[in-house]
Structures are given as C-alpha cells and as structure tokens.
Amino acid sequence: MAASVLSLHAAYIACVIFGAFFTRCRQRFAALHVATLVYSVIVEIFGFWCPLTTFETWRGGVSAYRGPFLLHYLDAVVYPNIPPNLLIAGAVAVCVLNLWIYALRVRVRHSLG
C-alpha cells in the first residue's frame, strides 16, 4: 500500500511538471492541469495541507515526516545539499513555466482567431 500511495504522489508531481506538454487540444485536461498548478504553487509557497502527504502517513504506512513530499524525498535522494527554500523556488518556477505555456497558447489563439 505504501508503494502505491508514493507512486500516486510521484505521478501527481509528474503531471504537474509535464502536464502542459500533453494538454494541447484537450481543454478539459488543460483546465484540470491549471487548477493543479495553482494548487501546487499555493501548497509550496504557503505550506498548506496536501491530502496525498496525509494519506501517505495515515494509510500508506510511510513514516511520518515534516514538510511537503518534495522536500522529504527529493531533497534526501536527489538534492542532498540544496536548501529547502531553493527546492520550493524550483517547484514554483516549474509551475509558473507551465502557466506561461498556457498563457502563450491563449495569446496565439486570440491572435489567430
């Protein structure tokens, strides 16, 4: 169970990071992706509650940890010497980049239409 919850969390993060590449001509998925981007930025900046993290610690059997998923797993495995604020800034930058891609798409559609 813990592996499936962790996998779901990793899939959510992958969707947030790469979702803009898969949403062209899929407006429903694009709207969902924009919502996840906005929510992710809010969670990262303000440290709000993440249901997947809570589910990991409650149901998935993952040992409790402080902070968001990114800081716990990626910092420990991939970025051992990077300060948490830099990881948060990187996560927010990825979300903003995705939102910028959407803004460009809207701008191109309006200029063509």
Overview of the structural elements:
- This protein has helices spanning 2-18, 27-46, 51-58, 69-77, 84-112.
- It has 113 residues and is an all-alpha fold.
- The protein has one domain.
- The model has no long low-confidence stretch (mean pLDDT 78).
List strands and helices in order, with pairings.
Elements: H1 2-18, H2 27-46, H3 51-58, H4 69-77, H5 84-112
Helix pairs in contact: 1-3, 2-5
Key features of this structure:
mainly alpha, 5 helices, globular
Helicity range of the residues?
over 70%
Order of helices and strands: HHHHH
Number of domains: 1
Count of runs of 4 or more consecutive helical residues: 5
Radius of gyration: 16 Å
> Structural class of the secondary elements?
mainly alpha
The end-to-end span amounts to 49 Å
Into which percentage range does the β-strand content fall? under 5%
Low-confidence stretches: none
What's the rounded overall pLDDT mean? 78
Backbone shape: globular
User: Major β-sheet, in short?
Assistant: none
The total of beta strands comes to: 0
What can be said about this structure in brief?
By secondary structure, the protein is mainly alpha-helical.
